[in-house]
Structure formats: C-alpha cells, structure tokens
Amino acid sequence: MLVASLLPILFTAISVQAQPVERGIFDSVGVLDDVLLFDAPAFPDPANPANTLVGLQAFTSLRQIDLGVLTAAAQAALKAIGLDVGDKISTLEERLRLFGAVGLPGKNVKVDVGGCNKQAQLPGTSGLPDLGMALQNVSVGACGSGKELIAKVALSRLDSRKFTASVFSSPNSGFGVISDIDDTVKISNVLDKLALAKSTLLDDPVPVAGMPELYASLSKSLNDPQFIYVSGSPFQLYPFLNNFIDSAYSASKGPIYLQNLTLIDIEGLLDFANSDGVQEYKVSMIDRIHGMYPNKKFLAVGDSTQKDPETYAEAFKKFGGEFMACSWIRRVEGADNSDARFAAAFEGVPANKFRIFTDEDIPSLKNIDVAGGEC
Ligand SMILES: *[C@@H]1O[C@H](CO)[C@@H](O)[C@H](O)[C@H]1NC(C)=O
Ligand SMILES: *[C@@H]1O[C@H](CO)[C@@H](O)[C@H](O)[C@H]1NC(C)=O
C-alpha cells in the first residue's frame, strides 16, 4: 500500500527534476557530476600475489542541487498512509537523496588508493539497466600493509570536492564474516511495512542489542576477519547503512553489497525485503566473495525474516563446508520460525554447521570457538 501510493508521486517528482543533458561518452568526472564510491574489498591477484586487486564499485550521477520536490512528494505520500514526518524532514531528504539521482553512463572513474603504487581505472559506467554504475576488479599495484586503505576519486584540479571510501585489504586465507544487515545487525522490522518505512526513512538506526559487542569479539577471536555485509536493500540506501556500520559496528567495518535498483524499481525501496530474487542475488554475492577469497573460511550471520537460512544453505551446498564454515540465524519474532522451515532450508547441511539463535543467546555466542571449527 505504502509503495503503491509513494510510487506515482515520486515518479512525477523525478521526471520534473531530471533534465536531459548532452554529454560525450567516455567522459571523466566533472563538476556537474556526483560520485558515490563504495567501500570495497581488496585481495591478492591470483596471477601475481605481489599485485593487489580491488573489487571497486562507483555510481556516477548528475549533481543535484534541489531535492525539495522529491522530499515534499514523499512527505505527502507518507502522510497519506499515516506516517507523520514531523521534524524529520531533513533526515527524509538525506535518505531519499540517491533515489532522485539520475545515473550517468560512460563515465570513467579514476581512483587513487592510499599506500598503493598504481591508479585504479574503472571503465565507463554502465547504461541501462544499471545506469551510472560501474563495478570491476581493478589493479592498484603493490600496496603497503594497512588493512583499511583510503580510496579517493581523482578529480580535475578545479574541483575541490572529495569522494572517498575505504578499501579493506585481506589475504586469501584465514576467516571472514558474511553478514546480513536488516534485522540481523540493525532493527528494521522488515515484516511490518509501516515500521520498515519509519526505520528506513525517518528514524536513527538502532543496532540489534548485543550484536556490536559480538562482532567486536569476533574481530578478535577470528583474527581480523574480512567482514562483508550482504543486504537486499537498494544501493541508494548505501550512505545511510554505511554510516550506521561505521559508527555502531566500528570494530567490524567492511564493504556493503547492495542491490542495483533503478528508478523504475523504486518500489524496491520498501519491497526489497520480500522480493523473490533476494536469495538468488545473495548467493551470487557469495559467489563473488568466493571468487576473491576461495581459501578463506566464512561465518555467515543472518536472520529468519527473509531467505537467509535458504541462502546460506544453498551456498554451503555450492561451495562446501570448508568455505561456508558456519551459519548463524537470528530467530526474529513474527517470522516463520517453524522446525519444518529450518529443516527444509538446511536439508543436507550437517547439524554442526549451523545454529538458530535467539536474542537471549547473543551474549554467549562469543564463547563458541568458530576459529577452532565449532559452530
Ligand atoms: C550492478 O551493476 C554493475 C554494472 O552493470 C554490475 O557489474 C554489478 O554486477 C551489478 N551488481 C549487482 C549486485 O547486480
Ligand atoms: C573479480 O575477481 C574474482 C576473482 O578472480 C572473480 O571471481 C570475480 O568474478 C571478478 N569480478 C568481476 C566483476 O570481474
């Protein structure tokens, strides 16, 4: 209902806002453009381990000046379904910012990564359907030993803006943690549309109690694992989610993989949680992670609201228990937590390779010796 009422109004706002602009293809980033550079994982080049590859992703869009039309339309749509924006108007505007962004194709994004000796070049950003998006493994040459490196988009000398992101460098060995976000590490209420709209568009994000401490503890017990957050949320929520992880989960920062959803899919803003494709998408992201780190072992953490049990079990069957070493599923009240569901999801996965936990269990999870093979 919410989505249906939000949709036409947002579309009108967007088409009013988007002015067609003549541009050359294979252009560099200019003062009329905005760039969103995503935090990215780095891994040793299989062809030459002295060389580092970064799975770099950027979104280039037309620079925006005024979001007033979009925000006012969204505010009216939310009011119509009983959600009063009140004094959260600037929060709403900030969260919606990228939903009003007009992606630009054919932009070449050049990125300098601190401590590495080669500039990364992302090839031209994509046309439809992933308008403005670019993702590629790029070589940054030899890098220093830092775990978190700062990447910065190279701009013309006249442009004093800064577009930066973190690059998390990790060897192809040891441990990693694959984690969902909504209702696993952050209270989102994906099962309740109105509450989801509120937590996504208006409220300050709230961590699931005990999870920041658990992840901080894992970051020690698993000896600096590569954390990678894999969420079904649209990439337009990246700045919001990234700020949340950086502040609430400062001991377990890592790249965040989100879905490419274009304006046509803006209903995905609140429908992402229930979209049928989310399992397939998440398995393909785990595939990507496996491609970078085939010799790492992963602890996968998710919850029972969406398809995490089914997803992690599918990944276990695809990549084996050496890679998918352990899966933990948070039991969320109101979701399908039946024995039958978990039995069907984890059919073929040994019982000592997964665990369903309640909120009361969270403090004791840190005592499980995952590094030693327990789960
Ligand atoms: C997003 O779009 C880019 C560019 O087309 C593509 O390479 C990438 O795989 C897409 N990501 C997802 C999660 O589909
Ligand atoms: C990046 O490299 C990894 C490992 O070689 C591979 O699995 C993955 O498909 C590559 N990704 C892209 C976007 O080329």
UniProtKB/TrEMBL annotation:
UniProt cross-references to InterPro entries, sorted A to Z: APP1_cat, Mg2+_PAP
A GO MF term: phosphatidate phosphatase activity
PANTHER family the UniProt entry points to: FILAMENT ORGANIZATION PROTEIN APP1-LIKE, PUTATIVE (AFU_ORTHOLOGUE AFUA_1G06650)-RELATED, PHOSPHATIDATE PHOSPHATASE APP1
Keywords annotated in UniProt: Signal
GO cellular component, one term: actin cortical patch
Annotated protein name in UniProt: Phosphatidate phosphatase APP1 catalytic domain-containing protein
Annotated organism of origin: Tricholomella constricta
Domain (Phosphatidate phosphatase APP1 catalytic): residue spans on this chain: 175-330
Residues in the signal sequence: 1-18
Source domain of life: Eukaryota
